[in-house]
Target: Amidophosphoribosyltransferase
Amino acid sequence: MPTAPLFAAILIAVCGSFIAMQAPINAALGRSIDSTLAAATISFGVGFFILLALSIVHGDGPALARAPFVPKFLLIGGALGAVYVWSALWAVPILGVLTTTTVLILGQMIAALLIDHFGFFGLTPRDVSLQRVLAAMLVAAGAVLSRY
Model:
């Protein structure tokens, strides 16, 4: 897979649109079955089977067998994703897709600033610059404007 920054930016922007679509689709699923928690479970289950099939087809199936031997805290990613999927499908009917997505991005940016600053998870620390803080503040302003 190409590693050029432009390709990475385009790919993640497309996937960002998937996140915007995922929440209302999952919210509709929740309304259809009358349970947001069950809808999140179904969504994660479908995703699990797709990723399992892709891992096997791609030849990464044996790597799955190494999961029991990794540090246990590394497995929290799945739990974080599950909480995200449920909270997004729950919030969309209350906040709307735009505000939900904007607040989601704001939360990501605040966490990203802290992760970058402290170099969590083995990353190289990066300074929290005024420019980066202003970027997060502009998203916060966008969240307020999208709602009020």
Q: What stands out?
A: Residues 96-148 form one domain.
